């Protein structure tokens, strides 16, 4: 009995007997590492004489911040710290900025309790602590509360620190209205329901990983930028379902960037032209000028060809008749000689082509409607009298962009500074008095309302206004950031995120967040009076001119005949 006890005791002590050198070697091998970073370890060669891994030796000094590994050293590195005081820990925080998932090994000889809670609060999950005096190796499980585990082998560490279950840990997210990323409505049973594709992304993450979703700052909608950033910095917000600008990654960090989203400008569709103009619109003014010139030229040529006895007016009318393919009942062309037949053929062909084209153009524009000049580019924007309704942050952003020469500075002239609420309200209701800019998902969501309009209210300019990376903003040092990244990548690669985005548009419709617009008074009546205004004017002009000519002729002839009678 006592023998077994002694044996067990021996076994126990043998299990815990880890040496720093072996642990590091084992980790380097297992994780396929390329670099060891020693922090506050003094003389490493004395501590670990036979390590052949490339190494960086650093000390924390109060006034000298440590460099970040991210973008400077290989991410395949192991951080080894020989102290566990606050200064060393904040040194590790600086060092592993954005890379909290890298392994950390503490080599401790002083008998102070090592605070794993503080490591967790900085987002470090893969932490090992080796007690140099008794050779015991510890790691911890973070949720629901920190549980310290004594390890029996390094392979166990790999398994234990794989976080998969948040164990009902509270995840704080914001739920401000940023349709279609996140919005809420009251359903038929009177419950407040949250929707939106980015909200769903976070919601599903929390559900799948057994976390508890906690909505923060629910009463602020939308959350002012300053407040949001401050709350992120203080760690009140863990993740936010919205697209944000990087802003230097000061207040928050990010998940993986999946793609870039573009910002576009939407402009009101051009106003319809008055119907009276339809009759002159099939040809441009230059074509009309050519037509009239051609008519006059043909009249003069035929007059020269003939014996000069026939009147100019009669020839003009004949040419006009031929051009409009109206038969000349009293004239037989073949009796007039070859030249006349050729002239007739030329006039007929040109007239046939022109009048057929005119009819085709006219009927197509009656079908589609005619509109004033559309705004098609940023250059056109600078010359419109419409104003672009923008919010302070976006104006500042635009100013920065025009200053750096990315965007035409003329755009600043059409900016209208309004509050965020006003911009959201008018844009959502597709108020055509203004121009708006938005990130593409929002733009698609809002323009979804004109899906069933024959003539849209707004069009999107093809030029990209700005670009922001698509990521989920996370507070610095979020322990489950890498867990979220794996999830995010899967959701994206499987196309589920796009599906959710499409669903959000329809959910926007049936929640009443947006609504389909119907067309009002857009049926074009071909036979209304307005359509013939131009014709009437022409007719009236013709009558007036012929009346005047008649009167003049009457007067002149009257005088002639009077003179003849004398
Ligand atoms: C280290 O930081 C913790 C929490 O921030 C604090 O409670 C503790 O007093 C600090 N210890 C020292 C030695 O500064
Ligand atoms: C390290 O081991 C010694 C001896 O067992 C113990 O007194 C000390 O508290 C331990 N230190 C830590 C940080 O666990
Ligand atoms: C979720 O977490 C709770 C609290 O730790 C635990 O009791 C439960 O078994 C977990 N559920 C799943 C499905 O893992
Ligand atoms: C926009 O208006 C707000 C107040 O209405 C003002 O504080 C801000 O400076 C203005 N922004 C610009 C760019 O003029
Ligand atoms: C605009 O540029 C200034 C100075 O570089 C910077 O402080 C500010 O954050 C920028 N604003 C935006 C919205 O990017
Ligand atoms: C659009 O904006 C104009 C000017 O602010 C306002 O007079 C009009 O009522 C708005 N229209 C709608 C539908 O909100």
TrEMBL record:
Superkingdom, natural source: Eukaryota
UniProt topology in membrane: Multi-pass membrane protein
Gene Ontology CC annotation, any one: plasma membrane
Chief place of localization: membrane
Protein name per Swiss-Prot or TrEMBL: Ionotropic receptor
UniProt entry tagged with the keyword Signal: yes
Organism field: Drosophila madeirensis
Keyword Mitochondrion: no
Keyword vocabulary terms for this entry: Cell membrane, Glycoprotein, Membrane, Receptor, Signal, Transmembrane, Transmembrane helix
Secretion signal span: 1-16
Transmembrane segments: 286-305, 340-358, 531-552
Record's subcellular location: Cell membrane
């Amino acid at each position: 009995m006592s023998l077994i006890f002694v044996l067990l005791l021996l076994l126990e002590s043998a299990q815990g007997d880890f040496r720093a050198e072996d642990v590091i070697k084992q980790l380097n091998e297992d994780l396929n590492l390329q670099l060891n970073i020693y922090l506050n370890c003094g003389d490493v060669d004395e501590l670990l004489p036979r390590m052949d891994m490339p190494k960086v030796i650093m000390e924390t000094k109060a006034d000298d911040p440590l460099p970040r590994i991210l973008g400077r050293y290989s991410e395949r590195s192991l951080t080894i710290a020989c102290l566990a005081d606050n200064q060393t820990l904040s040194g590790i925080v600086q060092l592993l900025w954005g890379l909290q998932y890298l392994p950390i090994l503490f080599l401790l000889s002083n008998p102070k309790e090592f605070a794993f809670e503080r490591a967790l609060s900085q987002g470090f999950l893969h932490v090992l602590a080796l007690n140099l005096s008794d050779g015991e190796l510890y790691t911890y499980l973070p949720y629901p509360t920190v549980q310290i585990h004594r390890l029996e082998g390094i392979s166990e560490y790999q398994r234990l620190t794989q976080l998969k279950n948040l164990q009902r840990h509270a995840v704080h997210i914001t739920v401000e209205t940023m349709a279609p990323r996140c919005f809420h409505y009251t359903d038929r049973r009177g419950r407040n329901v949250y929707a939106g594709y980015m909200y769903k992304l976070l919601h599903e993450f929390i559900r799948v990983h057994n976390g508890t979703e906690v909505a923060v700052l629910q009463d602020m909608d939308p959350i002012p930028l300053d407040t949001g950033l401050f709350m992120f910095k203080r760690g009140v917000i863990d993740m936010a379902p919205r697209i944000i600008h990087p802003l230097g990654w000061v207040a928050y960090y990010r998940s993986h960037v999946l793609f870039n989203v573009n910002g576009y400008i939407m402009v009101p569709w051009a106003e319809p032209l008055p119907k009276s103009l339809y009759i002159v619109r099939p040809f441009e003014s230059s074509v009309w000028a050519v037509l009239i010139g051609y008519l006059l030229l043909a009249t003069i040529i035929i007059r020269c060809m003939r014996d000069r006895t026939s009147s100019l007016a009669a020839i003009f009318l004949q040419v006009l008749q031929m051009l409009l393919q109206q038969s000349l009942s009293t004239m037989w062309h073949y009796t007039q000689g070859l030249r006349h037949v050729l002239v007739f053929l030329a006039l007929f062909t040109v007239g046939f082509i022109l009048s057929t084209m005119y009819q085709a153009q006219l009927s197509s524009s009656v079908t589609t409607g005619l509109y004033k000049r559309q705004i098609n580019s940023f250059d056109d924007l600078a010359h419109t009298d419409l104003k672009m309704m923008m919010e302070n942050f976006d104006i500042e952003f635009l100013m920065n962009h025009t200053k750096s020469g990315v965007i035409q500075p003329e755009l600043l002239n059409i900016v209208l500074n309004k509050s965020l609420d006003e911009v959201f309200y008018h844009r959502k209701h597709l108020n055509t008095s203004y121009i708006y800019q938005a990130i593409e998902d929002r733009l698609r969501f809002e323009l979804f309302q004109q899906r069933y309009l024959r003539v849209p209210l707004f069009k999107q300019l093809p030029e990209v206004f700005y670009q922001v990376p698509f990521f989920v903003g996370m507070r610095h040092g979020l322990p489950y950031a890498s867990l979220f990244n794996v999830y995010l990548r899967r959701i994206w690669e499987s196309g589920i995120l796009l599906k959710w985005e499409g669903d959000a548009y329809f959910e926007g419709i049936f929640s009443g967040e947006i609504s389909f617009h119907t067309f009002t008074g857009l049926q074009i009546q071909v036979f209304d009076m307005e359509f013939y205004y131009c014709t009437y004017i022409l007719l009236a002009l013709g009558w007036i001119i012929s009346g005047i000519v008649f009167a003049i002729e009457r007067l002149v002839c009257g005088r002639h005949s009077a003179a003849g009678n004398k």
